[in-house]
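Collaborator request log, item 7. Partner lab (contact: R.S.) asked for a structural prediction of Cyclopropane-fatty-acyl-phospholipid synthase to inform their binding assays.
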Amino acid sequence: MADVAARLTALAEGALGAPLTVRIRAWDGSEAGPPDAPVLVLRHRRALRRLLWKPGELGLARAWVAGDIEVEGDLYEALERLSGLIWERPEQPGGLRPLDAVRALRDPAARRLAREALTLAGPGLPPAPPAEEAARHGGVRHTLSRDREAIHHHYDVGNTFYERVLGPSMVYSCAYWQQPGGTLEDAQEAKLDLICRKLSLGEGQRLLDVGCGWGSMVLHAAQRYGVRAVGVTLSTEQAAYARKRVADAGLTDRVEIRVQDYREVADGPYDAISSIGMAEHVGAAQYRAYATVLHGLLRPGGRLLNHQIARRPQEREERYRVDEFIDRYVFPDGELSPVGSTVALLEEAGFEVRDVEALREHYARTLRAWVANLESHWPEAVRLTSPGRARVWRLYMAASALAFERNRIGVNQVLAVKTPTDGESGLPLTRESWLTLTT
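Returned to partner:
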């Protein structure tokens, strides 16, 4: 077992068909690879067993969450260099598919790589997944009860933890960076105000915020635009936090927070509906029903602002779910669709889509700000949750920032109107009214 790092490097390069661009430090203290590259530290041979039993993204993620591997140096650079092994999965001329070589056992080179990997990993059953992994459920996704369980896994991990990550705004969606030197709080306020202006909110109107989180949108709309707002969430921790914020602001007569599924809302009509970072939880099979429910809750002429992450279109539409690591550790049952599919389904439900604004670069910058917040409060974040949970959030936010930067995923604000039969949408002829932050 001498010089494990050199053997691991040779193994990875054999699978990749190209030089490895990160340095490896193995559990025996040996190192190999480019001297100035980020270091991938394998603390235990158990990390290799995780990769062999689940080649690709999930095995690597489990090893990370469990603390079996670590990165020394710039995490973003390390993920960038590893992206071909994990997400992009390019076919290398003369090489084997990254991290799937051990599966191609009919290939002699793959059999050799598999034998070498098994020797290094040592005997033993596959390690148990880290405790932070979501329980797997059978049956139909996106029932009311299963959606509540999924939301509980992600959002009910402690409001103080989220305060440290999100900052004072407590907004958990893409910010809107109007100024190059602006703060995260400035950018989140600008995003909330942009949505209010797109919805043309005004004194006395009724606003429904679907997936209201910690209440930031309904508070902003009530304080700045005088609306009467209802926020619904499936997270009991979020609801308790939001209700306290509403009470502290003296707005209990104007803002109501409910623990309620959007499918259970029955007190329309509303003048406007905001859905900010919530529709990713709806599911492809339920999306038309989601759009129909929201359409039915609006008055004629009412507006919907749907703010949603989108994946890139694929030749075959068989995979709507998010990446396996995200599905297991971050957003269970989450699904991403192309923006074109979202627009089509909204219009099939009766909406007239009037505007689509892409904010991809804004989300990359937002995620980097959240990662910086988490890293600056790291000991407290670990204490508030667990080492594994904090590692999940750091990995998913850093990897997501790169995914937005590389145009693997995007995020869009879709403004839609329940246009009356007379065709009067009520929208201004130009966008100027949306472009300047209200003071």
